[in-house]
Amino acid sequence: MCLADLEFDYINPYDSASRINKVVMPEFITEGVLAFFYLITGHWCMFLLCVPYMYYNWKQYSQGQHLIDVTEIFNMLGWEKKQRLFKLAYLIILLFLAIFWMIFNALEDDE
Question: CB within 8 A of 99, min separation 6: which ones?
Fold first, then answer.
């Protein structure tokens, strides 16, 4: 949303970058904790689906590319929007798979 607001000049680049950069580390930590819970509870398929996302996040963090630079935000606007939408779609797919398996297991145990 911040990137769309920035594209239409509703918000300045500094505010947009600071809002986005505030949620980057909690996003990484949340995905890592979720993958760890999948691992210790024995949900191997869900854990394996989380591994590419965690690897991508780790690679960005280790290269120092995980934060948005205020001075380069307009140059990278199209790429950042595509990247954020892809990540959102990936997380939504993981959420629906988790809900599906939870309902499937609850119904299987009930019979």
Answer: none
How many Å separate Cα 37 from the centre of its chain? 17
Please state whether the predicted TM-score (pTM) of the whole model is above 0.85. Answer: no
By CB atoms closer than 10 A (0-12, 13-18, 19+), residue 74 is exposed
Rounded-to-integer distance, Cα 81 and Cα 1, Å: 9
pLDDT tens-digit series, residues 58-103: 998 998 877 777 777 667 777 878 888 898 899 999 999 989 988 9
String of DSSP letters for 14-63: HHHHHHHHHTHHHHHHHHHHHHHHHHHHT-HHHHHHHHHHHHHHHHHHHT
